Amino acid sequence: MRNARRKARELATQALYQWLISRSGSGEIDAHMRDQPGFDKADREHFNALLHGVIREFDALDKALSGSLDRQPSELSPVEHAVLLIGAYELRHHLEIPYRVVINEAVELAKTFGGTDGYRYVNGVLDRVSAQLRPDETQSARRS
Predict the structure, then answer these.
(1) pLDDT in single tens digits along all 144 residues of the chain
(2) NusB/RsmB/TIM44 domain: from which residue to which, for each copy (predicted)?
(3) Domains and their CATH numbers in the chain
């Protein structure tokens, strides 16, 4: 399941990158991604939740991120923006995934698809966002 979820996150990152650049319809992007090599190895349910959930909640997720950013979300690289949106979505809606796992997965996505030091930025932003979206979990973990 872990590899299938990671593949779903990778594909969702690529799909959201495409959406951020083109603002094409989510159905069109979804269909395109399903034709990509390796889609059969992805957790399809998680991919659907990420792609369609992030697009549906885009404004709210950007607002949740904006307090932890040093610039406007529109000024982020599309890769970092997509990764941060996925991380914020998982922090908000997938409470079964520990916040540290959400951050680590986002860091790996940023290392794979982003710029040289983009992963550091993603790590810092999501660490702050996790304290906002999951205060009990992060406080408990930081006391340990």
Answers:
(1) 459 999 999 999 999 999 999 999 999 999 999 999 999 999 999 999 999 999 999 999 999 999 999 999 999 999 999 999 999 999 999 999 999 999 999 999 999 999 889 999 999 999 999 999 999 999 887 776
(2) 6-130
(3) 2-143 (1.10.940.10)
